[in-house]
Specification:
This protein starts with a helix and ends in a 10-residue tail after the last helix. The chain is built from 19 helices and 15 strands. Helix 1 crosses helix 3, helix 4 crosses helix 6 and helix 6 crosses helix 7. Pfam families: Methyltr_RsmB-F, NSUN5_fdxn-like, NSUN5_N.
Length: about 525
């Protein structure tokens, strides 16, 4: 028994130092005996959840002072089990006898219990699980979203399959509501998503990883927010689309699904391993219209004839990932704070990192805009920072004139959470981009959509052969050096540090033509 708890203490210590994840340190840890793994995983998770109150009890009872050999990490799992576990200490788990520490904790059982009772009384709670902070409770986990893979099946077939299995279909929430209805927290229930037609929503603890429809690729388990970009870019059947930073390919296969597996989706990623995963996952999803290439998107020549008809581009480049809610990470963060081991990234580092990411994100968008037939480009991140979202959009609007922001009515108009206000964008522009937040029951996310201005006058440029190409805009000619572009255009382009009064109004001055502020695709 002692060896089991000792090992739990070592794992907690490593977690506080952020040496790995809960799963890798328990289930995936070769030093944990196979027969202990599940128990170890459960003990660690539960200890993390209750860490605040356990630390308080250990301190109050002076356990650290009373035991010379034990540190906080060794004591925590023991105190957890003696107070919180239904069966108390796990005597049946083999491995060594009773050490001094175990004996001490057992001998102090009644004091520890009365300490717990006092805390519960002080906090006014009746059940122990109410001591777990709200955001770490099981029932507050995010909903499970199931995307129907239209490349292989239909919504009707999938709904019928679940109903035949005994799942009950509830009414969806009204369109203006970001969260599914409350009533549906019961197991074996689901609703049709009220914003995305190819999405089903299941209660938080539903696990469909072994479900036959998941195993055969008819459904994809994908967070709702991550399903927004493909809907926003909305590639037409039989068209040519491109996913610039595609792996592991959830959004690529989503575009393929919306195209009914017709046309072509070019999928780029510069990471070979991740691209291999994309190939495996999109093959499982039955997508036969995807051409996957291991290439830096910034090195792809937009004027290569094979991409001349690419109209839809989905850009989901690397970002800080600050919107991703990982419950296990939250548990560890909470635990590290409780044991006084906070290793948060310092402000200056963070700012520099965001600046680097934002520069890269702008480059990716500007490069996508060079594709001669591009007419609709979505840009998304799973970040909550303005620097990677609204500010990137503002910089791009300030650096070129060929693309405008699509209007709200063309960017999931029924989705209520829109962009954050910033002096760099007009109100209308902020309203035409979308955000998702953990408050909506999903990861933090941002999506914007650029559409080509149909009235942008074609600007003559030197094509590869040295002839003047009247049909290609200046931005599409990647072989034209930047200084040449400036010379031909006669304008100097800078990142706007001031709010663009309106992208379109700048353009009106140039073309002396009246046009709407934003363009409908
Ligand atoms: C946020 S992930 C994309 C997730 C993907 N869209 C999905 O939904 O499954 C960003 C990806 O961009 C790739 N990447 C980063 N820079 C790139 C570049 N310059 N060209 C191509 N891929 C790039 C990374 O390797 C990573 O796989």
């Amino acid at each position: 028994m002692d060896a089991f708890y000792k090992q739990a203490g070592v794992i907690l210590n490593s977690l506080a130092r952020r040496d790995g994840s809960v799963k890798t340190m328990t289930i995936g840890n070769s030093r944990v005996k196979p027969e202990w793994k599940r128990k170890m995983y459960a003990l660690i998770c539960e200890t993390l959840k209750y860490s605040q109150v356990l630390v308080e009890i250990i301190n109050k009872e002076g356990l650290l002072e009373k035991s010379e050999k034990a540190d906080i990490y060794t004591l925590l799992p023991l105190v957890h089990d003696i107070l919180m576990a239904r069966g108390g200490l796990q005597h049946s788990v083999g491995g060594g006898g009773r050490s001094e520490v175990v004996k001490l904790v057992i001998s102090m059982k009644s004091q520890l219990r009365s300490s717990l009772g006092e805390i519960m009384e002080r906090q006014g709670v009746k059940a122990k699980k109410e001591l777990i902070p709200l955001h770490l409770r099981d029932e507050n986990q995010m909903h499970r979203y199931v995307r129907i893979n239209l490349a292989k099946t239909t919504k009707e077939k999938v709904v019928e399959y679940f109903q035949n299995e005994g799942y009950r279909l509830f009414n969806s929430s009204p369109v203006g509501e970001p969260k599914p209805p409350k009533l549906f927290s019961k197991s074996k229930t689901f609703v049709l998503d009220s914003h995305l037609p190819d999405l089903l929503v299941f209660p938080p603890l539903t696990d469909l990883h072994d479900h036959p429809l998941y195993l055969n690729g008819d459904i994809i388990l994908q967070d709702k927010a991550s399903c927004f970009p493909a809907h926003v870019v909305s590639p037409a059947p039989n068209s040519k689309a491109l996913d610039a930073c595609a792996a592991p390919g959830n959004k690529t296969s989503h575009m393929s699904s919306l195209m009914g597996n017709t046309g072509t989706v070019y999928a780029f990623d510069m990471d070979m391993k991740r691209l291999d995963l994309l190939k495996t996952l999109t093959a499982k999803a039955g997508c036969t219209n995807i051409v996957a290439k291991c290439q830096n998107f910034l090195d792809v020549d937009p004027l290569d004839p094979q991409y001349k008809d690419v109209e839809y581009l989905l850009l989901d480049p690397s970002c800080s990932g600050s919107g991703i809610i990982n419950r296990m990470d939250s548990l560890v963060d909470h635990f590290a704070l409780c044991v006084g081991h906070d290793s948060a990234v310092k402000g200056a580092n963070k700012e520099q990192r965001l600046e680097n990411l934002s520069d890269f994100q702008v480059k990716i968008i500007m490069h996508a805009m060079k594709f001669p037939s591009a007419k609709r480009i979505s840009y998304s991140t799973c970040s909550i920072h303005k620097e990677e979202n609204e500010h990137v959009v503002a910089k791009v609007l300030g650096q070129q004139d060929r693309f405008l922001l699509a209007q709200r009515k063309d960017v999931l108009p029924g989705w209520p959470r829109r962009g954050l206000e910033t002096p760099l964008l007009t109100k209308e522009q902020s309203d035409s981009v979308i955000r998702a937040s953990p408050e909506d029951g999903m990861n933090g996310f941002f999506v914007s959509c650029f559409v080509v201005d149909p009235s942008a006058s074609p600007i003559p440029v030197e094509a590869k052969d040295g002839n003047i190409d009247e049909t290609t805009s200046i931005e599409s000619a990647t072989n034209v050096p930047d200084d040449k572009i400036k010379q031909i255009r006669g304008t100097k382009r800078e990142i706007d540090s001031k709010p663009p009064s309106s992208n379109a109004s700048k353009k009106r001055k140039r073309t002396k033509k009246k046009r709407p502020k934003q363009i409908t695709a």
